[in-house]
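User: Could you go from structure to sequence for me? I need the amino acid at each position, not a summary. Structure tokens:
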């Protein structure tokens, strides 16, 4: 059995920045699990089933990547899935403060290590929130998210 990495996030919705990290992780590890956090503390635009489906469509050409969802502790999900490392993208110093706390807590409570992958500069400005905000005002998000995500985003925001 090889090394499995877990890439967790809300993915509401998945962006090309997320996919860049997942794709690079898929080249480094034997397998990658994308873990969609159900996250009851946020009110997502897309249901967990929709977020999983959008991700599945986005990674369908990556044979060693699979997508699932979880609630509760990340360390429990990682253990249950046989993942021995967490991989997260770091965009800017603003991500660092929260991420380092989470990483240290997960090491403490689950002896689970987190590896940070530097974001490609072309995606360093990109977040799901910003994509939703721009799209909600009719801005063009082409090239920032996969096409099937963009279509659903527009449908959802126009219907809203
Ligand atoms: N553009 C990006 N490049 C690389 N990593 C990213 C990018 N956007 C998010 N990530 C990473 O993906 C993981 C999941 O992030 P999350 O689901 O919070 O996405 P987000 O785009 O930050 O969404 P939100 O705006 O809702 O916080 C985090 O580790 C985050 O740092
Ligand atoms: Mg975020």
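Assistant: Here is the amino acid at each position, in order:
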């Amino acid at each position: 059995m090889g090394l499995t990495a877990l890439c967790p996030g809300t993915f509401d919705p998945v962006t090309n920045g997320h996919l860049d990290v997942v794709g690079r992780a898929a080249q480094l590890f034997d397998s990658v699990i994308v873990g969609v956090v159900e996250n009851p503390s946020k009110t997502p635009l897309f249901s967990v089933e929709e977020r999983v489906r959008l991700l599945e469509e986005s990674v369908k050409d990556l044979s060693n990547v699979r997508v699932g969802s979880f609630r509760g502790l990340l360390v429990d999900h990682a253990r249950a899935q046989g993942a021995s490392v967490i991989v997260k993208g770091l965009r800017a110093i603003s991500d660092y403060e929260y991420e380092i706390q989470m990483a240290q807590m997960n090491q403490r409570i689950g002896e689970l290590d987190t590896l940070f992958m530097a974001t490609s500069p072309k995606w360093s400005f990109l977040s799901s929130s910003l994509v939703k905000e721009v799209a909600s005002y009719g801005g063009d998000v082409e090239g920032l998210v996969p096409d099937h995500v963009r279509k659903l985003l527009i449908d959802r925001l126009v219907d809203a």
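One structural detail worth keeping in mind: The chain has one domain: 4-159.
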